[in-house]
Amino acid sequence: MKRAAQAGAALLAAMLTVTLVATFAAAALWQQWRSVEVEAADRTRVQSSWILTGALDWARLILREDRNRFDHLGEPWAVPLQEARLSTFLAADAANNADTGDADQVFLSGEITDLQSRLNLGNLVRAGNLDKDWVEVARRLFEVLGLPPSQLANMAENLRFASDIAVDNRNASRAALTPQRLEQLAWLGLPPQTIAVLEPYVTLLPTTGQPGTVPTVNVNTAPAQVIYAAVPGISLADAQRLVAERERKPFQALADVKALLPEGAELAASRVYVATSFFEVRGRLRMDDVTIEERSIVQRVTLGQEVRTLQRERVAPSPPTAPATRRNP
């Protein structure tokens, strides 16, 4: 009986030892797997960052090499980059001797958008006060889009309040933060439905309030609704006719636009022009089931001699761009 008890205790001890060893082995294996996964994720993050930085530099080069004094949708920058294997870009570089095997599984796409094809809502406030001319432009845009004017009045006043950084402003602590992205217009009281309607027609540029940087509307790239809003004295049909005319031949100067406008139209160079300084660059990188997308705002100055990056951020991936067309909504 005693011998049987000793045998049972020995068996139990052996089982406990095996269980303990298995537990330690599983923990070590998990730690090793986790380290490999963390290292792979970190490597992917660094590689994707370098690739997207290269894509941004490539986009800036395209904009810098564009020396035209007018910008339109027939230029190279306006053609989206459809999804393509990274290896095709590496193979095009005769000086590249690196192994491109892994690059066959990496796909790159993106596009450049003219941000001056939209109304910059930051123009509504100038030096702490509402700019009546730009508020009227926004009113006309709200009108043609069927949006309530009361929402515009509320948004404009809240934007002025948020932009008031004067030292003697005792109510500054109660003001909303100045929005940097369109979805943040909700901070100013706009409902999500209104923001969704406005999205194709407005933008928020990071240069609000700086002297000499009031972005005009590019009549060569803006949709008819924005042109209608920016040029008082014309109808939506007149704006649509301008869009049709520029598809045949882009406007090289405001005089070309004025010749097509009805009598009484107010074509002010302070509101509309034929060239662009602000662009949005989007780059998308797809590796297996992981998609990484970056959005950058760049400013082209001195006729393309310099292209500055004003803002750069990771964003939620959007669907791949459809083949380019020359028509605006």
TrEMBL record:
Q: Which InterPro entries match?
A: GspK, RuvA_2-like, T2SSK_SAM-like_1st, T2SSK_SAM-like_2nd
Task: Say yes or no: keyword Membrane present.
Answer: yes
Subcellular localization(s) per the UniProt record: Cell inner membrane
Do the record's keywords include Chloroplast? no
Instruction: Recite the UniProt keywords alphabetically.
Output: Cell inner membrane, Cell membrane, Membrane, Transport
Q: Which residues form the T2SS protein K second SAM-like domain?
A: 217-262
Which Pfam families does this one have?
T2SSK, T2SSK_1st
Q: Which residues form the T2SS protein K first SAM-like domain?
A: 117-207
Cited PANTHER family: TYPE II SECRETION SYSTEM PROTEIN K
Of which family is this protein a member? Belongs to the GSP K family.
Protein name per Swiss-Prot or TrEMBL: Type II secretion system protein K
Organism annotation: Ramlibacter pallidus
From which lineage does this chain's organism come?
Bacteria, Pseudomonadati, Pseudomonadota, Betaproteobacteria, Burkholderiales
